[in-house]
Amino acid sequence: MTGGPITSGAGGLPAAVDAIVPDALDLSHRVHANPEIAFQERQAASWTAELLRAHGFDVEAPVGGLETAFVARWRGDRPGPVIAFAGEYDALPEVGHGCGHNLMCSSSAGAALAAARVLGREFAGEIRFIGTPAEEAGNGKVHLIAAGVFGDVDVCLQIHPSDSNSAEVLALAVTEIGVTFHGTLAHASADPWLGKNALDAIVLLHTMIAQWRQHLKTGERVHGIITHGGAAPNIVPDLTSGRWYVRTPVDTDLDAMVERFTTMAHAAADATGCTVDVAIDPMNRCRTMINNATLLGIWRRHLVDAGLSDDPIDPNPGSTDMANVSHEVPTIHPYLAIAPRGTPGHSREFAARAGGREGDEMLPKAIRILAATALDLVGDPTLVARAWAELREAGGGRRGTD
Q: What does the H/E/C string look like for 1-31?
């Protein structure tokens, strides 16, 4: 990292962005070249924290009971809005950065540094970076919310690499269900009648789920994998396991989907003479996204200033723990394109673009737009108040209303 401590009066935003881009690109490339999966992002978290610390941010690590979570703060000289940038850095197993999280930690860190460079120390409020692990599996932000890490945040911002520049995004509520079937061992040829086949049970469950899909509501999804199917072909399996995700565009429908899934798992066990354990971690649950009109209005203005146009909402969403944050504080999570339309996410093709020319070209624009949005919010706290009013009207943001 080449940067030194930020000093007050470091110039306007374009100069601030130009000054930090080399370090942000270096961070992006290092994280991309060294992919680490959920809760194991030790190098990525350390490198990101190191960059912020080198420029004068106060860094606290770890936070929220998560080894690879941290908070970096740049405080003004008097109280005011706390504007936080979330930064993800976990990769996908086998695929690497097929979701572009190397660009997410580097753009948020770069935006925090650029905003701080413009503000100096004579301002009301705080610029904050929150390093948030395990978005791909484990929902680190849910743990951090429960630990109070977002408790004093006034606004939270983060971009997501995509194949479009959609400011407003959708996200499905999701939870993971783990299933383990227990049967009875037997010789698969000599005396199979003595066994209870746990593989039959999990295959039966998989078949029932496939049949269920015909009757899912619009936008609902159920998908999973068998993680253990037995030990050898000549042994009746006594233990099998799998992982499934259930998703819905309506938060309140998720429990009904989980109940239906659980009923099918027990039915598969009963039909095969097995027993079943169904595991659901309440922390491993994401919500739908609450987009904030005030924040989106600011974002769209700066998107145009950066020479980009706002694309229509992508009607085919995934899920993210950033949506959980959107229920706590005013939040936006816009897409910025690094790939042609139709490029699949979570693919090696997308990963290549996240670490290549397209990602490098997007990064300065992301830093500029994120930082400009934050500076508007620091400069006009009435915008923050308006964003909070909108969030409360949407049913979120209960802080300070009791």
A: CCCCCCCCCCCCHHHHHHHHHHHHHHHHHHH
Between the alpha carbon of residue 230 and those of residues 139, 187, 234, 267, the distances in Å are 29, 13, 10, 20
Is a pLDDT exceeding 60 seen at residue 6? no
Work out the pLDDT band at 401, boundaries 50, 70, 90: low
For residue 131, the cross-strand partners are 70, 87
Q: Is the pLDDT of residue 73 over 50?
A: yes
Spatial separation of the C-alpha atoms in residues 200 and 388, rounded to whole Å: 52
Q: Where are the alpha helices (DSSP H) in 147-239?
A: 198-212
Closest by CA position to 32, among listed 334, 295, 352: 352
DSSP summary character for residue 329? S
- How many residues make up the chain in this entry? 402
Residue 38 CA to its chain's centroid (Å): 11
pLDDT at 8: 41
What is the three-class DSSP state of 286? strand
Contacts of residue 256, Cβ cutoff 8 Å, sequence gap at least 6: none
Residues whose CB falls within 8 Å of the CB of residue 178, separated by 6 or more in sequence, listed in order: 241, 242, 243, 278, 279, 280
pLDDT in tens, 311-341: 999 998 999 999 999 999 999 999 999 999 9
* pLDDT above 90 as % of the chain: 95
User: What are the distances in angstroms from CA 130 to CA 58, 64, 117, 375?
Assistant: 12, 11, 18, 17
What type of residue sits at position 45?
A: A
Return the structure tokens found at 217. Answer: 């509501």
CA-to-CA distance for 41 and 91, rounded, in angstroms?
A: 8
The phi and psi torsions of 316 (rounded to 5 degrees) equal: -120, 75
What is d(CA 23, CA 268) in angstroms, rounded to the nearest whole number? Answer: 54
Cα–Cα–Cα angle for 328, 330, 334, rounded to 5 degrees: 115
DSSP output for 342-367:
TPPSSSHHHHHHHTSHHHHHHHHHHH
| Angstrom distance (rounded) from CA 179 to CA 258 | 12
